[in-house]
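Reminder to self: tokens first, then the designed residues, so the page reads top to bottom the way the pipeline ran.
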């Protein structure tokens, strides 16, 4: 919008009397119009603020009419919002923060290599772990101790990997938890102390330094040739054992736009998220790029306050949708089915066929008049029996819901293992309208 167009919206003489201030405010407010999301009619708040100037008396009558209409409009919008909110609550919804991640707000994985000392004879065997021996020699040399050419036999040292996850926006001096895991043949890290260890990010820079006493979830005890082990004593953690030394610079408030990534990509859910954000902000700031990504342009009213914008929209209730899935875990016999699972008309019969083979061993003794060469012999008799359970036939009609499907299969008396076979067979017959995922 040019300066002339801006001035033309006001009565004659306004531009000459207060034009400098108005144009300055206008250019300051709309300087990012090409990048930020703009309301359909501009910012009513800012434009109304500059309306009170030397021409106020000239526009008093017109402004009162506009104010009255604007008040009625706000009342109508408020009433509509109440009914809309009630309608949204009638369906199952999730908060935006629970189904999506904001670009740039993420954890950072760190890793390092260090030494644990103070173990009670449960450390690495130095002759079997050359890296532990070299690390110990290097550490001692940094402390001014020369051990070159000597044979180290310590059993109280273990080489470990140290890992940590640094939360977003961690500041220098803040503390995070670290995890310690043995690399060599150490039996336990119980009672050990991690020496100062630098933790590196993917870019090779040091972000955290970790040190402290290790706590483990298990233990190992033994005596007299018997060993008892609980948990994994070669894994441990240090609560608040890492100190952030370098911050990750990320200026959230200066972002003119960012992406929202759905944790469970779905094109309909992405559409719902886009509509909910735009309806809440009153401006077309969100645009669906694909089933996983929504691009969000920061509205001009939130310029320089992107964090406030995210705090404003992350509580929005959003309808969610997913494709029909059946997840089968063959190892544990677990079956999980989504709400949208449907089947076509199909008849299911389930019966248990049990084949039992029994071997009976009997000893045959020679009779009273048997020849002298006769000997006692072992004879095995095999008995084979077949049992077939009473099978039932159930008809599942077209469009059967998850509740009806489970009720029908329960009527057959099927267990989880049989349920896995039935679902896979129905899918093979083309009657199961869902994606079957086997783990």
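Designed residues (439 positions):
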């Amino acid at each position: 919008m040019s300066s002339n167009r801006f001035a033309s919206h006001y009565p004659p003489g306004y531009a000459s009397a207060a034009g400098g201030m108005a144009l300055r405010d206008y250019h300051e407010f709309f300087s990012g119009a090409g990048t930020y999301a703009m309301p359909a009619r501009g910012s009513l708040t800012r434009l109304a603020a500059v309306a009170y100037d030397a021409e106020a008396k000239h526009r008093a009558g017109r402004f009162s009419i506009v104010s009255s209409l604007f008040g009625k409009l706000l009342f109508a919008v408020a009433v509509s919002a109440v009914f809309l909110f009630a309608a949204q609550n009638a369906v199952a919804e999730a908060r935006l923060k629970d189904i999506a991640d904001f670009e740039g707000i993420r954890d950072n994985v760190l890793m390092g290599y260090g030494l644990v000392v103070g173990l009670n004879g449960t450390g690495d065997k130095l002759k079997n772990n050359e890296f532990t021996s070299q690390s110990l020699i290097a550490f001692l040399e940094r402390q001014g101790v020369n051990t070159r050419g000597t044979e180290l036999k310590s059993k109280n040292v273990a080489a470990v990997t140290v890992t940590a996850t640094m939360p977003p926006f961690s500041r220098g001096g803040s503390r995070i938890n670290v995890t310690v895991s043995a690399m060599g043949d150490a039996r336990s890290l119980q009672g050990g102390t991690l020496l100062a260890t630098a933790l590196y990010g993917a870019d090779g820079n040091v972000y955290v330094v970790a040190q402290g006493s290790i706590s483990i979830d298990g233990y190992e005890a033994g005596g007299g040739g018997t060993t008892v082990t609980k948990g994994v004593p070669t894994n441990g953690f240090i609560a608040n054992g890492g100190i952030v030394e370098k911050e990750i610079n990320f200026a959230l408030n200066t972002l003119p736009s960012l992406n929202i990534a759905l944790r469970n990509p779905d094109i309909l859910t992405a559409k719902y998220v886009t509509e909910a954000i735009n309806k809440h902000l009153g401006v077309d700031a969100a645009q669906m790029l694909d089933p996983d990504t929504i691009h969000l342009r920061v509205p001009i009213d939130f310029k320089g306050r992107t964090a406030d914008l995210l705090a404003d929209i992350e509580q929005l209730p959003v309808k969610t949708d997913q494709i029909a899935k059946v997840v089968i875990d063959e190892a544990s016999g677990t079956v999980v089915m989504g709400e949208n699972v449907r089947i076509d008309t199909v008849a299911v019969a389930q019966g248990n066929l049990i084949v039992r083979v029994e071997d009976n061993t009997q000893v045959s003794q020679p009779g009273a008049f048997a020849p002298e060469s006769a000997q006692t012999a072992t004879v095995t008799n095999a008995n084979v029996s077949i049992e077939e359970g009473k099978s039932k036939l159930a008809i599942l009609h077209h469009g059967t819901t998850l509740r009806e499907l489970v009720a029908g299969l329960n009527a057959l008396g099927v267990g989880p293992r049989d349920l896995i076979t039935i679902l896979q067979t129905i899918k093979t017959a083309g009657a199961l309208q869902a994606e079957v995922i086997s783990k």
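The CA atoms of residues 302 and 385 lie 79 Å apart.
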